[in-house]
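Reposting from the mailing list since nobody answered there.

I have sequence plus structure tokens for a pair of proteins and want to know whether others read the tokens the same way I do. The first protein:
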Amino acid sequence: MKIISSKELLVNAINIVQKAVSTKNNVTLLDGILLEAGKIFKMTGNDLEIGIECIVPADIRKEGSIVINSKIFGDIIKKMPDSEIMIELIDNNDVLIESENSHFKIKGNSSDDYPLIPEIEAERSFKLSQKIAKDMIRQTIFSVGDDENREILTGSLIESDEDKLVFVAIDGHRMAMRKTYNGVQNTNFRVVVPGKTLNEISKILDAEDSEIEIFTSKNQILFKIDNCKVMSRLLEGEYLNYKSIIPDENETKIRLKTKELLSSMERAALISINEKKYPVRFDIEDDILVISSSTEIGNVRDEISIDVEGKNMTIGFNPKYFLEALRVIDDEVVDIYFNSDIGPCTIKPIETDEFAYMILPVRIKS
């Protein structure tokens, strides 16, 4: 194998495929990147749960393949001069890496046993704007669970029924739902994608309007993003019925400016050294929302003007859950619905149904 490519192209590809390189697996090959030169030059990372393959524009002088330790290879390429780089496989799996006056020779491993990314027998496929996909992941991923005993909740539900696409994440204490009607083709499916996969994909996606193509099968999902492919297993099991856990009836509704509530919650959270032990208290009093917290450090009180429908109420929340939801909401004004002083609250847009954030309350001392 012998190829020549630019440092910029190589670094970009390495940064992407490294997201699928195993850091904990005992299999030596899985801590490496597979380099393959044939009709095209491509790099692959695969930890058996997620696999990423990137095509890299290159001048291919000789065909071949090799696996190189991901960290060593990445560090070398990033420190090379900003010029063209030659990568050549020589005898005994040694690899030459040269650029201008810089020369490395490092040990590689045979690619014979490297696990290739399998071809997917797609049952469904659709295209979506990368910008919309990136936003939908950003606005839900923080609610993915981390309890391995409830593996299904360590993933996000992606659901489509004809004209809309929905992303849902639930961790047992809160729910995040984001919906879009933009550019969704008529298709029906329901899959649960590991949170890790979506987290890594969000780092690859462009914030522009180029498209991502998504293919699903019974137990796998494939994302095609520009010159890269990301393959992941799907989680098995029945996901929670998110529609049924959003309350239909509410005792109180308030309308307020998102940034005002975010700023107030950030101030209240400053002294909440233990979010579970010291919740933030909401007192809805006519046209004022009083946000307060009292801890061993001290106390804080903030007031926000609101529009209220329903009765006054006192209720407590883990500030982290509110903050993570508010930080991803782009709407200037939101409605918050309170089921009761011990029931969940739901943050929604004032005119559409494009998102919903449901948060369970916590007990507060009288």
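The second protein, same order (residues first, tokens after):
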Amino acid sequence: MARLLLKSGIVVTQDAALGVLPSGDVLVEDGRIAAIAPSLAAEDAETMDCAGHFVMPGLINAHMHTWQTALRSVAADWTLLEYFRHVHAGLATVFTPEDIHIATLAGALNQLDHGVTTLVDWCHNNPTPEHTDAGIAGLKESGIRAAFFHGSPKPDPKPGEPHFSEVPHPRREIERLLNGPLADRNALVTLGMAVLGPHYSTLEVSAHDFALAREMGMVASMHQGGGEAKTPGGWETLMAEGLVGPHINIVHGNNLTDAQLKAFVELGVSFSITPENEMAQGHGHPITGRLRALGSAPSIGVDLESAISGDMFTVARMALASQRALDNAAERTKSGGIPATSTVPAAEAFDWITMRGAAMLGKGDRIGSLAPGKQADIAVMSLGPLAMWPVHDPMATVIMQGSGARVRDVLVAGRFAKRDGKLLRSDIADIRTRLAASGERMLDQLKVPSVSRQVAAQ
């Protein structure tokens, strides 16, 4: 693999020792970062001018149901209950493997286009192995680094069928994937488990799934919240049985008690929140501040492109603003006035979409920051003529003025996925057509009008 020198950028490393270089160089060799310094000489390397650009670690989208990409904006006005009814009990049941493939491919490419180099694809619409394999194929074809979190569908049961909450995660399918398409645990696309957890399953199923994930050495991620728990007191039982630890990832968690959060943090559990969609659909306030009070912090995800945009900068700002609003309101209630200073530094929000995502995946030694020896997962974002200039505080500028639309170049393991503002693919028009056709066919089940074809034809 050729050597590449990223020259004269504002290098935001997220590395404690290196910090921010107001003007710096990053040398890439064999898919890894070889050196970072104010100035590097590498005469045999291809040089790319990054003056007037941020050079930063690729973002990590810690939770997204990428299979819903063809349904963009359909759920924009739905509450969580409407989403359950229309998507899981409705639209999800008519997905073919090709629908899963095109949605996952297009969704992953859009993440790359917006500076995301690692995607946690939480796939819980895989009624057959063919659906699962189609999603994995879409991720691999995109070129993104991804954790495919294998889940299970949630349709209304037919007569004689058990409710999904009573069905253990399929060991045979996990073993098939580990012995087949996801056998290489050091590959770009790796495997995790998207389980039901005690909020959405029986205690027996939760205990089975937690133990299976630990046995297989992978993350078990689960939604927590949205109505009454299927197993009240389930978490306490699972903790008492020693089944809760660093391999457990809780998504949302809005309704957890302070005592539960404290116990989870002490056990090394990770948290992934989706602040924009949580506030929009009725989950409750994101738990950002509650985690910070315990010395922890969340990773962040988009959640649903059927409801919101896929821009991680927007989601990070939502997390930051929502927690500042809660803190400001609490201070007004306490003292009747405005806080003396902001409670959450903007720089923390960048950590949530980089290092915290890497830690959740157990890959903090490989991704999430720029440092010699780490994977060359890099995003280069333009300041533009006016949009992000002048830069007084690089970290604050990245979060408060950053946008996926400003990302010029993206590298995953040292290979360009996007360069000079364009994804390196010649089939984008075909992907758009296939994605629109997939969405229109499924939306016809609900008689929802679509204008994708008319727009594409213009």
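Reply #1 (J.P.):
I read it the same way you do. Residues 146 and 189 are 5 Å apart (CA to CA).
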